Amino acid sequence: MADTGFEQTDPAPRRSIIETLELDVRLLGMLVAFAVIAAVFTVWTGGTFLSPRNVFNISVQAVPVAIMACGMVFVIVARNIDLSVGSMLAMCSAVMAMSQAYWLPSLFNLEYGNPFVLILTILIGFATGTAMGALSGWLIGYQRIPSFIVTLGGLFVWRNLNWFTTKGQSVSLTDPNLLMFGGTEGVLGAPASIALGIAASIFAVFAILASRRNKLGHGFVVKPMWAEGLMMALIVGVIMLFVGWLSRYPIPPSKIRRMFEARGETVPEGYTAMHGLPISVLILVIVVVAMTLTARKLRFGRYIFAMGGNPDAAELSGINTRFLTVKIFALMGFLCGLAALIAQARLQSHGNDIGMLEELRVIAAAVIGGTALAGGVGTIYGAVLGALIMQSLQSGMAMVGVDTPFQNIVVGLVLVIAVWVDIIYRKRMGITK
Q1: Bridge-partner residues for 274, per DSSP?
Q2: Of 15, 49, 309, 336, which sits 20 to 30 A from 223 (CA to CA)?
Q3: Could you tell me the pLDDT band of residue 304, with boundaries at 50, 70 and 90?
Q4: Which residue from 393, 332, 392 is spatially nearest to 363, judged by alpha carbons?
């Protein structure tokens, strides 16, 4: 047979749409699970589950756990655990509640509603959380006490210090400005929400295009343009659908009347207003973006993943793993303070049971979102999606009359199944950790 001078090559294998879009299989699985949960409870409740009001409530209720889950990703990635986050939330909430109701007004002779009280209250709460987290990090990093023991002790210490701080009493939020950080008291309204949704969509599109241009500039393989376009369409669609749906949730006439009366005005005849995007959800978005950029772009984030991948190698390469541990737990404490601000604003008071069992929900959200308990692997968006799945489950079960103990049983089973599925996935992918 004559030699033609050409070598025969096998055709390139056809890639599936999932491979072409470069989708995380675990993320896709979580999205499918969330869609199934939403579909089941929507049918079960006759459409009430996906009503604008319930979507609003689920979003607001999931925020504190989601914010703390973002910090828990860093903690677990670094091969640690924090069992004290619920108690730290309670302690921060107690300090902020007492500050705005008693300590600051009496110390500085300020009236309720003074902006100075609001600012100082928030700073005190954040400083309290950061200090508690840094103390845990110092004990773990420099004294070499296992994180499980340190944070388990913190769970008891901070929970009971919270009780002594308020003398076992509930404290109402007397500063009306604090209420805007949670629930229906703090919303942007429909016009501002839609405008913000459009701005976020434009930003997302430009970010995807900029990432593609950067990869091309460095000679990396990129997705086909149609795949990029499909991803942009999906992201923009989700953003605008979410914002538009919340903008259909009307503010009750009685509340509108109180709002106008507070300004000394009369409600125009036929006037209506919509809730739109909650400020607490906007804060969560900011936290997610900041934490994601930290994990991907900053040295601090890269060091965390290096430490989680191989602590000995990270230390030999010059990373101060002890001080890094302090910073990780200090960040976790700061996020607990932020979550406390939002949680007490939604409840409009501080109660001694605030944050109870939240540590388990936070860890579950991170693990369900794909964070490996062995360390080294985890994503911020996965943890937030995990928190949303858990809150959707609990909300749906509550709507159909499932008792709270059984709800907790289901959450526990979901956590175990999520870890089991993750182990199977890693074995099939040849991941040893």
Answers
A1: 250
A2: 309
A3: very high
A4: 332
| pLDDT digit string, tens, across residues 120-144 | 999 999 999 999 999 999 999 999 9
Q: Which of 395, 346, 304 is nearest to 45 (CA)?
A: 395
Q: How many CB atoms lie within 10 A of CB 176?
A: 13
| Domain spans in the chain, listed from the N-terminal domain onward | 22-186+299-394, 187-277
Measured CA distances, 334 to 75, 189, 418 (Å): 13, 29, 28
Give bridge partners of residue 349 from the DSSP assignment.
172
CA dist., res. 300 & res. 323, Å (int): 11
- For the chain, how are helix, strand and coil distributed in percent, rounded to 5? 70, 0, 25
Task: Report yes or no: 184 and 275 within 8 Å, Cβ to Cβ.
Answer: yes
Q: Which two tokens stand for residue 386?
A: 């995990």
Helices (H), 46-189: 52-77, 85-98, 104-108, 115-141, 147-166
Token couple for 59:
């979003």
Per-residue pLDDT, 255:
86
Residue type, 188: L
Q: How far is it, in rounded angstroms, from Cα 393 to Cα 96?
A: 31
The pTM (predicted TM-score) of the whole model is: 0.92
Long-range CB contacts for residues 411-418, cutoff 8 Å, separation at least 24: 411/361, 411/364, 414/364, 414/368, 414/389, 414/390, 415/364, 415/367, 415/368, 418/364, 418/367, 418/368, 418/386
Q: Is the domain covering 22-186+299-394 a CATH 1.10.3470 domain?
A: yes
Q: For residues 330 and 134, is the Cβ–Cβ distance under 8 A?
A: yes
Per-residue model confidence (pLDDT) at position 431: 62
Question: Which two three-digit tokens encode residue 431?
Answer: 């991941």
Q: Which among 342, 386, 338, 393 has a CA at the least distance from the CA of 366? A: 386
- Assess contact for 368 and 389: CB atoms under 8 A: yes
**Backbone dihedral region for residue 371 (phi beyond 0: left; psi -120 to 50: alpha; all else: beta):** beta
Is the Cα dihedral 347, 353, 354, 360 positive or negative?
negative
Q: Is 349 helix (H, G, I), strand (E, B) or coil?
A: strand
Q: How far is it, in rounded angstroms, from Cα 334 to Cα 340?
A: 10
Q: Are 295 and 305 in contact (CB under 8 A)?
A: yes
Distance CA 276, CA 273 (A): 9
